[in-house]
């Protein structure tokens, strides 16, 4: 055997594979990043400059923030932001309370019919949103809750999956802690707040973040129950901007709005990168 | 101990209320709606019980168009996105430098607003009187003629829709596959290397079978997700998807419920149940196949 | 196949840039003669597993050379070395049956070495017979006991007729009874195939019982190489003396005065040719002999009856061990209620070591 030859070819092969790998990964990275670059780039181009480009320019030499001013003045983008923020905060908060209480009931308390109810809950996980949205739409319309925050929020609160996730986590807390607390005369509710919640904080953070992402990007339900701009969320807002525009087709201003809408979640992601990725890999599909 | 009984229910009460009103009741109701014939939403009356809503939906050309679009979308994006995600994840797993950076970048589409970024795709692919758009510029470099991907031929619109859908679903798949690959015990690879196994054979004979449960999980959730496609299409082609000829089943459901042609909850219910049956059937087939092919 | 390590060093970079490199194997030179069963022995973190991986090619040495026979394999990737490796957790492919696992390495052969399906199967069956796996060929690894999995792993390593066979902690995942049985099995298989075999273990009993040669390592350095009995009887330094033997050797602080070894005030042994100094005196448990007028007096703690032998547990101010264990024949009656017990020391069961270098100090008469 010619050892040197084997060694050399093995080395060359490894280098070749490495090169191909990095090139391929970089290509996908570019494909992912390019739309982001393009939206930022376009949002910085002047209205006139953009519309005179028959051949799109990959850069701009005269960036302007005019589009951002337009996006926040010509259309009620700020209002959409506030609406989305209110919707996200209240929905997430109620969801957390509901989830923590029921997860605790399933994980720690004993009552008749617990197993049956839990099985029913699990069965509900399989039900697609599309099936229930129809009646909810009718219900909310009949209750005259269209174009109200109540109509937006209430049907978006309950998430069986998060209850399941938290219940699993709660169940991991050793029973001894509960008995010790009982002996010390702690009430169930106090035990939940003082022991369970702090111990399971990582899962709670994960659930919160996932719900915030979900709320911020929700489109279908808000579209069904809001038709007045005063209650539009950002997704509906951007769609309205697209269809009715700024009085005329103003793509740079539209892109400025897109950048403004995308930014909060991207910042959130960069801050909580590990938490979010861990949470999603534990069970969050988009949509 | 008896008061513990009622206490448990007290803790559960909010969840039961929310789920009861907004999930269980609607679930029952949707079936009732779907069998009530000639339901009139203003007067809340109907004149019969039967399958008429289903037969109407199944004969509605808009529904058939939506069905065709959805099935095409599913058939193209699920295998393609899973395959590409596998290649990328394997690539990611094999490198050390820059890995974190790549992972962060690849995950970005997950946290973006589908509607908002869809608009960027729209302007990238759109051809207007003022510009051919970026995509056509690239096509032009390779000598192709300009195509309008947003208002043009069907295949072009389908292409953008698939492209955008894949772009959106990739982060989740890459993340899950990367996690699965990282959990394969390294000694398997070492054992195979010592036995002189080629890289390709290590991949096909060891890596792939070991992550096959994850692959099937991705395929199943991929099918379910793609069948429910809607917002991506709205983002690209606007809310009037029927006119664009790019509606999806879920879009059809919503259009029946609301909007210019809305006000038919019965038809919407029938369509939603048809979708549910399709998804359920496919999921069951998937599970059966996976039982045969997923190891251990 | 003879295996040679020449000044082999393996450094791992520190966890952060500021931390120094970790030297796992430090300038090791070792020659393993053809056809022997060799035990690499040492406490955890001593570099024995790293050494094994250097032989397998999964790791590359930072410096130094490795030879198989006359071939320099230092930079050869593992797939071209022709080694069989049995992993500590066996690394059996969970989705393949026993037969498929064993055939796996054969399917990698290319070119003129390529085998037909029947040839592969014949070879696999032949090896399976060697390790007594016939009848289990269609099971999945998860359906096998630990010992059976171990044998599949060995069969898979052997089927391609490796130039050397490497085993990483082969017995550590087995329960005590299987361990005894399996180590005999490894001995038998090695004898039958005659393949040079190196195995890694932290269990000195395991290494002593089946090896032709043991290599004692600590902190990346080889302390001693030799036949098990030789290493036990003639440890070259204090570490080797302490590491081998159960119960462990009893180490006393002592001093040499006028060619006599003193422990405390008692003169224990005549040490011709050794100059005056502080020493460690290590006495094997079986090196004690009860004698009412013996040289060494200890405080008796208790007597443990072990059937054939009696273990006398006692203490001594100058002893480094928490308790001294002396193994004596059960024929000798021990007065368990006494507070003192006196021993004579068998000279060849006592070794003295320099306090500074911890190296053995040879006695002239014993040479």
Q: What tags apply to this protein structure?
A:
heterotrimer, B: 296 residues, MetI-like fold, two-stranded antiparallel ribbon, C: 367 residues, alpha+beta, Rossmann fold, 2 domains, 8 helices, 21 strands, 23% helix, 34% strand
Brief characterization of the structure:
Helices cover 75% and strands 0% of the residues of chain A.
Can you give the helix content of chain A as a percent range? over 70%
CATH class wording of the largest domain in chain C: Alpha Beta
Classified in CATH, the superfamily of the largest domain in chain C is P-loop containing nucleotide triphosphate hydrolases
Mean pLDDT of chain C: 88
CATH-defined topology of the largest domain in chain A: MetI-like fold
User: In terms of per-residue confidence, which ranges of chain C show pLDDT below 50 for 5 or more consecutive residues?
Assistant: none
* Ends distance of chain C: 34 Å
- Inertia-based shape of chain C: elongated
Number of distinct beta strands of chain A: 0
Largest interface: A-B, 90 and 93 residues
How does this structure look, described?
The complex is a heterotrimer of chains A (287), B (296) and C (367). By secondary structure, chain A is mostly helical. Chain A contains 15 helices and no strands. Chain A folds into 2 domains: 3-67; 75-244, MetI-like fold (Orthogonal Bundle), CATH 1.10.3720.10. Chain A is flat and about 75 Å long. Chain A starts with a helix and ends in a 6-residue tail after the last helix. With 296 residues, chain B is mainly α. Chain B has one domain (54-293): MetI-like (MetI-like fold). Helices cover 75% and strands 1% of the residues of chain B. Chain B has 13 helices and 2 strands, in the order αββαααααααααααα. Chain B has helices spanning 2-35, 52-59, 61-94, 99-107, 114-125, 133-141, 154-182, 186-194, 199-227, 231-237, 241-244, 249-257, 265-293; strands at residues 36-37, 48-49. Chain B has a two-stranded antiparallel ribbon. In chain B, helix 8 (186-194) runs antiparallel to helix 9 (199-227). The longest helix of chain B has 34 residues, at 2-35. The two termini of chain B are 44 Å apart. In chain B, 47% of the residues are buried. The model of chain B has no long low-confidence stretch (mean pLDDT 88). Helices cover 23% and strands 34% of the residues of chain C. Chain C has 2 domains: 3-241, 3-Layer(aba) Sandwich (Rossmann fold); 249-361, no CATH class. In chain C, the strands form 4 sheets. A 6-stranded mixed sheet of chain C has the order 6-7-8-3-9-10, with helices on both faces. In chain C, strands 13-12-11-14-20-21 form a 6-stranded antiparallel sheet. Chain C is of the alpha+beta class. In chain C, helix 2 crosses helix 3 and helix 3 (117-130) crosses helix 4 (146-158). Chain C starts with a strand and ends in a 6-residue tail after the last strand.
